[in-house]
Design a protein that fits this description.
This protein is mostly helical. It is built from five helices and two strands, in the order ααβαααβ. Bound molecules: heme C.
Amino acid sequence: MRRSVLVIGMLVLGAAAAMAQEDLVKQDQAVMKANAKNLGAMVAMVKGEKPYDQATVDASLAVLQNTAKKLPTMFPDSIKGQNPDGDYHSSPKVWEDKAGFAAHIASFTKVVSDAKGKIRDLETLKAITPGIGKECGGCHETYRLKNS
Ligand code: HEC
């Protein structure tokens, strides 16, 4: 009797831990979706789909900078191999090649902080935005996998 209570207790604890990890992955995905939304707002202006708006640029860059700050702690070992619903998941390389992943975080951080204050009009936006997009793509190329 006591034994089964213990077993049930352990099962419940295990499930709670798995859920917490799934939540972490979902948080990561929400951060990434916010990246896409905010970079997308800048790209829409580059393409002329939206008029240039400094407040939108500044707000978008602030979100990206916040992401840059979060990235180093967004992928703890506990979420390795976790893959809840979604279009993408992290490649095991995030954990197998920590130095490479950290290098991508560092260059993303640099490009985003360099952009801050430098984008003042459509011309500078057009010059700088593709470089930020390249940082996203550069990391995804190796560290993000599409769910099939
Ligand atoms: C240092 C690496 C890195 C950088 C830089 C980075 N990402 Fe990601 N991104 C990832 C990883 C890893 C995943 C997979 C996470 C997952 O889906 O669980 C991901 C997933 C995504 C997803 C899919 C989220 C989902 O629902 O599964 C989007 C959209 C995305 N990133 C957009 C961006 C944009 C836009 C930028 C640049 C502004 C960016 N990312 C910069 C590593 C990065």
